[in-house]
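Quick question, first post here. What does this chain look like in 3D?
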Amino acid sequence: MHTLLPEPARRIAAWCVVVLLVVGVAAVGVWLCVHLRTAVTPVLLALLGTALLGPLYRRLLAMKVQRSLAAGLTCAAVVAVVGGVTYIVVTALIDTGDQIIASLKTAATDLSKHFGAAGTSLDDMASNARELLGKFGGTAASGVLSGLSVVGEVTAMAVLALLLVFFFLRDSGRAVAAMRSFSPGGSADAVEAMARRAFGAIEGFMRGTTIIAFIDALCITVGLLILQVPGAIGLGALVFVGAYIPYLGAFLSGAIAVLVALADRGFVIALWALGVVLAVQVLEGHILQPVIQSRTVQMHPAVVMLAITAGASVAGIIGMLLAVPLTAAAFGVLAELRARYSAGTTGPSGASPGPPGTSPGSSGAGEPASS
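> Answer (accepted):
Ran it through. Tokens below.
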């Protein structure tokens, strides 16, 4: 049978159709997530929390602690840790926030003396910052009910995320069994392997990022304290929080630290502060990242930046926080598919850690149900 198009053209057309279908499904999924963000955001945050707390939960299970009690203790631990860290960060920022803002304004004034019009514009921006904040505060005060609604929504999402973490930890075996039961045909093993690889990528990313963020913040804080830069604790807190947004967060927090050093300690100390920030970034890029996150999905920096930009355009700061781990999960699924089907096999592959409470080679179907 003769066709109008040659074989290469038909293959290209077929791939175009596949790409359009995938993009269409992804666009519909993103649209649904945006419009259902009040329900979707707690689920995604709970997945990140489950990935981060999985090792602690499994350690409690290994100590023969009952599943519900182990999940409850893990959630209590995360409340204590997150609450303590939040208190330290907020207290540090409140205590040193005015000083940091004043230092940034002084830095803008110094820059205006050296760079003329460009520096003057920076000085104007710093001078008008308080006025802009005042206007914003007036607008917020005029909409107190709206502000209370936002606070209530955030609180509800946080509580829901914590409850979901408890259920995700306790009932992970049931989730794996349900996922296998809903898998079509004989694809249960492949679906489970992809889910395990995706969860393993998220778990490795969250654990590695937290360790790296702590080391970065500790090193920069110690360096700034040695240089006697004012607000060192608050700047270290900014570094820790910013580390969860790869590249961009480190750049912004490091730039703020250098500007504060320039304003209060002079040009030489600012150069030393810049050296400390760059040294920490080199340590992170060449030692911490390869060693700590060597078992996670490795992504090119360009892919990370595009993911952060896309996440920010879709969901703002929450999108920036969720973009990289979700992209890592997608890369994990693609890696599993490539490993399985490039060799023409359908057997389980990879040794990535599965969801909490399950071993890498088990389906979880035989786990006893507990309450």
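DSSP finds eleven helices and no strands in the chain.
Residues 135-145, 345-371 have pLDDT under 50 and may be disordered.
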